C-alpha cells in the first residue's frame, strides 16, 4: 500500500507540472488510496475464494470415503472415550493409543453424538478444517511479503499437494488439521504482535499455542518459529523479546519431557527384529534422519511417491548416505545465504524446526518411517521459499514466462496426483492393497491389516492368506501370529492355535522397561491359552498362565473366574472360592451353578 501511495503522489506531481492546475492533494490522495484499497481487498477476496474452491474441488472425493482400520477403530468407533466419555474423562483419563490429543477426541465425541459411526460427517469436518488451514496459510504468506497472486499459489501448493491426502482423507489424522489450525493462527497473531506491540496479542498467541499442543504434541516447535519471525522481521532482540519467549519454551519443554517419558514407557517397545532401533546404531539412525529430511524436501516439489506406509530399509546404502549429505548441504547452505536471501533461510529453518523431532527414526516404530502427514505444517516453510523465489524471478522480464509456466505445471500435476490418490483411502481393503501393490512382500503390517478387514467381513480364507504372508515377510511379527490364531480358533484347530499363541508369547516379554512395566497384551493371550489348557485337562499349565495373566492385568475379572474353574478341577476349593469372590467384587457375573458347587449360595 505504501508503494501505491507513493505512485499516486508522483502521478499528482507530474500532473501539476504539465497543467499547472492546483488541487487539494490530500483529498485526491485519500480518494485514490480508498479506491486502491477497494481494489486490493477485492483482488484478495477473489484469490482467497479461488484457492478455497480449487482445494475443495480437489479434495471433494474424500467425502465418499469410509473408515479404515488404520487407527480409526482405536481412536474413534471403538474408543470408549468417544462413545461414552465425558469432557473430564477425555482430558484426564488414560487411553489405549498412547498419545494425548484431547481436543481431537472431543471433536470425535461430538460427531459421535450426532451421527454415530457414519463416516461422512467426519470426512466433511476434516475437509473444512483443511480449508481453514489453507486460508490461514494464504494469510500467513501474505503477511510474510508475498503478493496476493503468489500467496495464492503458495496456499494452493499447501492445499492440494498429494502429501496432504493422508492428513485429510484419514479421519484419525484430525490431529494434523486441528494442531495446524491453531499453529497457523498463533503465527499470524504473533506477526500482528510484532508490529503492534500490544500484549493482548501475545496472550492470544499463547492461547493458540496451548490449543495446538492439546491437539498434537508436534506443536512444541512453535517457540522456535516465533524466534524465526523475530529474526525475519528484524525485530530488536532485547530483554523483553527474550523474556516473553520463556513461557513458550517452558511449556514446550514440559510437554516434551512428559511426552517423551510417556512415549518410552508405552510406545518405544518393539520386538520386531526389522525395526530401525534393532537394526541400526545411533549414527546410522542419524544418517536415516538426514535421508528423510532430503526426501521430504524433494517430494514437496516432485511428489514421486505417496503411500500410507513406506518400507523400512534393512541396511544403509548409497542413497541414504547421499540423502544425509544433501541434507547437510541444504541446511548449512540456507544458513550461509541469510544476508542475500533471507526468505530462503527462514523457510528452510521453519521446515527444519517443524520436522526435526520426526526425523529420528529410532523414536519410530516399524510403521512410522517417512510418513507423509508429518510434513503438514513443516511444508509451509518450503512453499514460502518456492513462492518467494518465483515471485522474485517473475519480476525480471526475461524469466516471467518461465516462472508462470512452472507454477501452472506444478499446480496441474498436484491436482491430478491428489485426485488420483484419494480413492486409495476408500476403505481398509483399498488402502492396504495400494501399499502392497507399491511395495509387494515388503511391509508385513499391510498384509496384517488387510487380513483384519477380510476377517471382519467374513472372508476367512483371504484373511488367513494375508496373515500367512505377513508372517512370511516378517517371521518375528507377534501380531500376525495372534491374528492368525483367530482363524484357527474359528476352525477349532486347537493345536495350531496353541502354536501361534506360543510363537506370540515367545516374542513378547511379560514385563518390559527393565522388568518394571507389565504388558497387558501378553495377559490377554496367556488367559486365552489358559482356557485352552483347561479344556484339554492340562490344569497345572492353565494355572501357570492364569497366575501370570493376573499379575500383568490384575483388574480383569475373567482371568480370576477361569482360574477358579481350574482350581476347582484340581480340588483346590479354598482358592477357587477366593477367586470367585474377587471376580464378583469386580462386578463379574458368576454362574449360579458354579457358586452353588463352591457353597457360596
Short structural description:
With 601 residues, the chain is an all-alpha fold. It has helices spanning 2-19, 25-58, 72-77, 80-83, 87-92, 102-115, 119-143, 148-160, 165-169, 174-196, 199-213, 222-232, 239-266, 276-279, 282-301, 318-336, 342-355, 379-394, 397-421, 428-438, 444-456, 460-473, 478-490, 494-507, 520-535, 539-552, 557-569, 573-585, 592-597, and strands at residues 511-512, 517-518.
Helix and strand arrangement:
Blueprint: H1 2-19, H2 25-58, H3 72-77, H4 80-83, H5 87-92, H6 102-115, H7 119-143, H8 148-160, H9 165-169, H10 174-196, H11 199-213, H12 222-232, H13 239-266, H14 276-279, H15 282-301, H16 318-336, H17 342-355, H18 379-394, H19 397-421, H20 428-438, H21 444-456, H22 460-473, H23 478-490, H24 494-507, E1 511-512, E2 517-518, H25 520-535, H26 539-552, H27 557-569, H28 573-585, H29 592-597
Antiparallel strand pairs: 1-2
Helix pairs in contact: 1-2, 2-7, 2-8, 7-8, 7-10, 8-18, 8-19, 10-11, 10-12, 12-13, 12-17, 15-16, 16-17, 17-18, 18-19, 20-21, 21-22, 21-23, 22-23, 23-24, 24-25, 25-26, 25-27, 26-27, 27-28
